Structures are given as C-alpha cells and as structure tokens.
Amino acid sequence: MNPWITSAVAGLVATGPMTLFMRAAERYLPPTQRYPLPPQQITAKAARRIGLSANTPMTPAWEFKTYLAHFAYGALAGSAFQQIASRRDGTSAALAKGSAFGLAVWTLSYLGYLPALRILPPATRHPPKRNALMIVAHLIWGSVLALLVSRSARRRAV
Q1: Which carries the bigger pLDDT value, residue 67 or residue 60?
Q2: 111: which DSSP letter?
Q3: What pLDDT digit, counting tens, does each position of 36-61 carry?
Q4: ∠ CA 89-84-82 to the nearest 5 degrees?
Q5: What is the largest CA-CA distance in the chain?
Q6: Looking at residue 50, what is its pLDDT?
Q7: Is residue 16 within 8 Å of residue 80, measured between CB atoms?
C-alpha cells in the first residue's frame, strides 16, 4: 500500500483512542472547564462560516458530523507522518517520533493556524488543565499513529 495512504489510515484509526481519552478525561476537568471540546468548537465555527445554524445543538446528527470532521482531520494530519516514519524504527524510536509529531500537530493547530484563522482562541487563553488534556490526547494520537505506521512498514519490508 502507498505510504501516504497507510499513514492516513493510521491517522484515522489513531483518532479513535485519542477521542475516547478526550471524552473520558473531560469528566475530570473542573465544572467551569467542561465547555465543548475543540472538535465540537471547530466544527460549529466551520458550520457558521458556511451559513449553517449558529446555535447548532448537539443532536446525534450534529455529533456524527463533528466526529466525521475530527476523524477526517486525523487522517489528513496522519498522512504527513510518513515523511518522518522509517521501517527501521523500533518501537521506542517510533513512539518518540509519534509523540513529537502529535505535539507538533497540537502546537501548529492550537498556537498556529486555528487562532490565525480565528477559529479558536490560542491555547495560551485556555486553562492549563484543558491544555494538558489536549496535549495528552495528541500524544496518544501520535503514538498510536507511529506504532501503526511502523508496524505496516516492517510488514512491507518482509
């Protein structure tokens, strides 16, 4: 399989554990910090920008669209990982690269283009516990992504 596609599929799959963590960890935030998670905020902002309801309720259909967008972004971002992946990477090297990649995606997103496009305020304006939740979620995503890509690359090499 093409390495770009392998990485995209791995990014899509890695978004699952990331999302499960985000949803579970959100319950442990202080009540004042339990406002919608970034995938919901980003999807709502995008919907408003294209003329959909400004106050979209979290109906099952809307929640599905949020997850669809989140998983699609995970696949898109994951596809870029193949540029730094190596079939010679052992588990430790893959985890290190994946963690660094996940952190880079968080940084570029929450301190870069999301604030620049006025989709979300920069991470510096969010509470530390919310930022910690999102950083750990991206570390999980990057680690799972790297393990899947590394495993696939080793299988192709055999």
Answers
A1: 67
A2: I
A3: 999 999 988 888 888 876 565 678 88
A4: 95
A5: 53
A6: 85
A7: no
